[in-house]
Amino acid sequence: MKIGEDKLNALTGRIVTEFGAMASAPLVLLGDRLGLYKAMAGAGPMTADQLSDKSGLRLRYAREWLNAQAASGFVEYDPRENSFTLTPEAALVLCDDSSPTVMVVGLECLASLYLDLDKVQKAFVDGTGLGWHEHHPSCYHEPSISAARRRAAEAGVGDRVTFEAAGAKTYPDRGFDLIAFFDCLHDMGDLVGAAETPFNRVFEARI
Fold this sequence. Notes:
The chain is mainly alpha-helical.
């Protein structure tokens, strides 16, 4: 069998790139959880010593984290000043919770995929499937509900709106005039059941 070296090298390079992405993801999560991106946002160029002082992180780890971020292209590095900068664009993606382009939280869900690997493997073999409720808790939505409540309070409307975590088919009937799905219906395990519930709650009640 003849091996195409160009194809082999291209695939090998692709896998190496995937290795880099997988190795970098935990450091991005640490940057989010430890508030490192937020510490850098709007601060301009920072040295490892300055980030260590501002965040309370040990200097050695601050330096290693910054180097990794620069290698991944998430922060900019100035070799003359030995400083690192989180650009406004990077802040929108990595630490601005109000930004429509913030993506760092998505890595929490990706991390849960590895924690669920044994469950997914079993589903592949016996065909039983795996419901969203069976995934690792990183996939649950309670943190989103908590964030929504906090933002409502900050906006001064916490006494007029409520946010709750409830099943798509079991939430209480409170005489809703409108029930909407926002980028979620396709992820539900029982699409028909999830769609029938609002029909029964809203439309049939008014026939």
